[in-house]
Amino acid sequence: MENQSGNHYSRSRNVGRNMIFGYINRCFSLLLPFIVRTVVIYRFGALYLGMNSLLSSIFQMLNLAELGFGAAVVYSLYRPVAEGGTDTVCAYLGTYRQIYRVIGLVILTAGLAVMPFFPNLLRGQTVPAGMDIFSWYIIFLADAVLSYLLFGYKTAIPSALQRNDLLSRVDTVVLIGKSTVQIIFLLLTDNFYFYLLTSLGFTVLRNFLVSRLVERYYPQYVCRGRIDAAQFGELKRLVGGLALSKFRGASRHMIDSLCITVFVSLAMTAVYSNYFLILTSVTSLFGIIGASMVASVGNSIVTENVEKNYRDMRRFNFMYMLLAGWAVICMLCLYQPFVRLWVGPDLMLGMPEVVALCLYFYVLKMGDLRWIYFEGAGLWWKARFIVIAEIIANIVLNLLLAKYWGVLGIILATLISLFFINFIGEAWILFKEYFKNGRLSTFFADQALYFGVTVVLAVACLQACDGVGLPCIEVGHDALQAATGAAKVAGVNAVNGASASATGGVATAGATAIVNGAANPGQSKLFALAGLAARLLLCTLIVVAGYYLSYRWTERYREAKEWLWSRYRGMRREG
Question: Is residue 335 a part of any domain in this protein?
């Protein structure tokens, strides 16, 4: 049994452990879904992918019935966990279980009520042949409901105790099993329902594994007792702010997908979802840093002074934005070659849309470290009007710009509301309500400097990468297409294999059937890897050199370097 306050491990050690297992899980979360997604495209077609993306957006909205209770409960547990209040933790856990079961029933009822209107979204659209859209909908609904009715509430315990690595281990095992079974069904059968039902079965399995894990590591935490009226009132206040924040986050992609379906086409929704999957995959890598830090930051806010936390945030933000700048530059230079190799030129967006998506990613990252301290301080309710303003602005701008600029207008609408309302407004709330040191302008100046350096380096990398690796990527894609076409000519009913290549955790896959002298799939992988790796290496070298020349004389650089060395020496002594 672990000590309930987590005193056996320092906050730095917990963050490091959470990040290691989080990144292991994220590597599989990047690789396996890309392989599965590629098999779906080549085996069944883009329409199936488009329908899955649309249903995912709809159920993201229905999942908002959770209202942020999970994050609110975890925040409420920081102090009792730090102070060893086992009875209080158990009382919150019991309340959480009751609330989750109610939420599950609410989602089930709302989902069934919405189902008769679902075909209206597809009016005039081509839908996948041989599939009953209501059965498809029911499977997604069951998947959304099960975690609430089973043991989803137990995830609050390892999260509050800074042990997200335990959840990452379970998620990795479940993901490997689910993806393997899905690929087998996709390749060996013509029944897409088997693929859909596999996800449902592994959702149930994950719930039972998490339950057993919590019972093993934290047997002292069981559902008993009740929180008092004051605690419940504080929980409701936190949930009010969190519900709006969750709705905002889910509505961004949901509104984008719906507007593309309505104003453009369902097929374009599939194209956009491929690009957005890449963006969210890279975002999720950064999300591991935030998820690993948030409980430790919450503990620091409870136990440390405000000035120390401000210095920590500024230092962490500098290091974080260096990573974000490198990532967005690599995305800008690799997006189009990668998508061409993965799904072909017919399923590509234009370069203006790619630039807009990269800006969207960077603005999201600009607010991440600020959000970690925002969440650690429990300021959700303070920002409720800012959240409402962003949601309304995003909807209005989507409807206006989609008519004139299509997909580009939809991305710009989300980007505008994200920067001018979310980033600026919530930074103002954090400095006004928590830091209270009048240094908001310093925070904005830091971000402007990081953005300026990133833009200069992005232009340099685009110029340097012009044409680099493209012949290799084109040969790789053409070879994969030739192999697929030869298999079809020979009458092969199912794609006989898949080849995957990954650069920086991003996977590509294609058919590998060799019939009548079609191209060698091993050679195809080497060509693809060579082209993408050349661009990645060139971007990395330019960015590292640019960062060194830009920041080596700054105080932020020296502080970050000293902090990293001190943590490294401390971990070696503990190890």
Answer: no
Distance CA 348, CA 335 (A): 10
pLDDT of residue 409: 92
Q: Phi first, then psi: what are they for 495, rounded to 5°?
A: -65, 130
Q: How far apart are CA 85 and CA 417, in angstroms?
A: 42
pLDDT tens digits, residue range 76-132?
777 787 777 788 888 888 888 888 888 888 888 888 888 887 777 666 666 677 777
Return the residue matching tokens 């089930």: 108
Predicted pLDDT of residue 97: 85
Report d(CA 50, CA 42) in Å as an integer: 14
Instruction: Give per-residue pLDDT as tens, 147-176.
Output: 788 877 788 888 877 777 888 889 899 999
Q: What is the DSSP letter of 155?
A: G
**Could you give the CA distance from residue 477 to residue 340 in angstroms, rounded to a whole number?**
7
**310 within some domain:** no
Q: Look at residue 285 and tell me whether its pLDDT is greater than 60.
A: yes
Tokens of 386: 């800012």
Q: What percent of the chain has pLDDT over 70?
A: 81
Backbone angles phi, psi at 163, to 5 degrees: -125, 50
* Tokens representing residue 280 in the block: 């969210």
Q: How far apart are the first and last CA of the chain?
A: 20
What would the two tokens of residue 199 be?
């996800």
Report how far residue 541's alpha carbon sits from residue 502's, in angstroms, rounded to the nearest whole number. 19
pLDDT band at 572 (very low <50, low <70, confident <90, very high): low
Q: Tell me the DSSP string of 272-337.
A: HHHHHHHHHHHHHHHHHHHHHHHHHHHHHHHHS-HHHHHHHHHHHHHHHHHHHHHHHHHHHHHHHH
Tell whether 428 and 474 lie within a shared domain: no
CA angle 365, 168, 327 (to 5 degrees): 25
CA distance 229 to 239: 15
Look at residue 419 in the predicted model and tell me its pLDDT.
94
Q: Are residues 493 and 429 in the same domain?
A: no
User: Does pTM surpass 0.70?
Assistant: no
Question: Is 95 in the same domain as 49?
Answer: yes
Helices (H), 68-191: 69-83, 86-114, 118-121, 133-149, 156-160, 164-188
| Helices 46-62, 86-114: crossing angle, 10 deg rounding | 130
pLDDT for residue 501: 38
